[in-house]
Amino acid sequence: MPITQGAEMKIEFVRTLRTPYSERFLLVKNAIDIGALDIHYRLDGTAAATLIILEDSTIPDAELPAVLTKIDEVLFPEISVIEKTFSSP
């Protein structure tokens, strides 16, 4: 079942894969796939993720921080970018 964002973002997160330690979501905007998010849950309670934004997506570079914030708020309410439990290279 898609997770739909508020009016400001209008992105759906559609889970396409789930294992005990990982998940994959498609990011969908206006019924068009705009990206994919692969999440890997670590045994120490942190998570590592790879976000792929498709070249032809409707997301301008300037909106990427807002996309990351929405991912953090909706998919990871227990994980925080600020507290660094969500890793980024």
Explain what the structure shows:
The protein is mainly beta. The chain has one domain. 13% of the residues lie in helices and 43% in strands. It is built from one helix and six strands. A six-stranded mixed β-sheet has the order 1-2-3-4-5-6, covered by helices on one side. Strand 2 and strand 3 form a beta hairpin. The termini are far apart.
Give the biggest beta sheet. 6 strands, mixed
| Through-space gap between termini | 30 Å
Main β-sheet, spatial strand arrangement = 1-2-3-4-5-6
Give the overall shape: globular
Task: Indicate the low-confidence ranges by residue numbers.
Answer: 1-7
* Order of H and E elements: EEEEEHE
Name the average pLDDT.
Answer: 81
Q: Quote the beta fraction.
A: 35-45%
- Whole-number tally of structural domains: 1
Oligomer classification: single chain
**What is the number of helices?**
1
